[in-house]
What we know:
Rossmann fold; 7-stranded parallel beta sheet; binds guanosine-5'-triphosphate
Amino acid sequence: xxxxxxxxxxxxxxxxxxxxxxxxxxGAAVLAHCAPSPKGAFVIGVTGYPGTGKxxxxxxxxxxxxxxxAKVGVLAVDVSSPVTGGALLGDRIRMQRHAxxxxxxxxxxxxxxxxGGLAGATRQAAQVLEAAGYGVIxxxxxxxxxxxxxxxxxxxxxxxxxxxGLGDDIQAMKAGLLEIADIVVVNKGDRDGADTTLRDLRxxxxxxxxxxxxxxxxxxELIAVIAEHERWRDLDRPQLHKRRGPxxxxxxxxxxxxx
Length: 259
Ligand SMILES: Nc1nc2c(ncn2[C@@H]2O[C@H](COP(=O)(O)OP(=O)(O)OP(=O)(O)O)[C@@H](O)[C@H]2O)c(=O)[nH]1
Ligand SMILES: [Mg+2]
């Protein structure tokens, strides 16, 4: 199975992720047999309150990274409901146009009742995708609580998506969502209040980008900012690759980040 995975067999990818989700020891066994990927995947987290446009933005990012020639994996992580709810259905619909692209793998993951294990399962699923040659891995999760934020600790670059008209919510987000963000995206930039929200957030965050995901506006700029953020991560790579296996934990890179 490890061989099939490394050959990029999509059915093997799906199967091994299912094993990991269900805590079947076969999943971890397969991962242990995979050689560390020489290049490593580029793992991007996309989080934010419900309905801010995360899936629409990811749909645009898939297209942009496919244009750059990368194989793209997407994990839509549903923290709240053990049985997948409407949100994930929406996620799939938003990204439907990529369903027939063999270079795009989209997968929903649910907790199946084990809250604490989700970040771990997500990390392992990302490792599966990395082993299968996916160069870019996008992880979507709704950023409303600690479990969701924990999932973001397994990625290299965290994008927090907000919509205009936050008002007092900004204060609450500073203690959670905005604190972990490397890049803040004000999506729905076509809506009233976008300018105010941008201005308020720029007082707080270094990198704030405006997008209109439904029209693809701001995506090129976002890709450039992500690449810039990724460049300093590259400096860590030799160090990361000394370790066998997981190279996705932001916490273990403490001190290497400038912010
Ligand atoms: N006006 C406007 N609407 C947008 C924009 N981006 C997304 N939307 C709409 O916002 C709604 C929610 O978009 P999604 O991409 O599903 O949002 P989400 O954050 O993934 O939602 P959940 O996964 O349910 O948390 C959809 O109706 C989108 O068409 C935008 O830039 N402008
Ligand atoms: Mg979504």
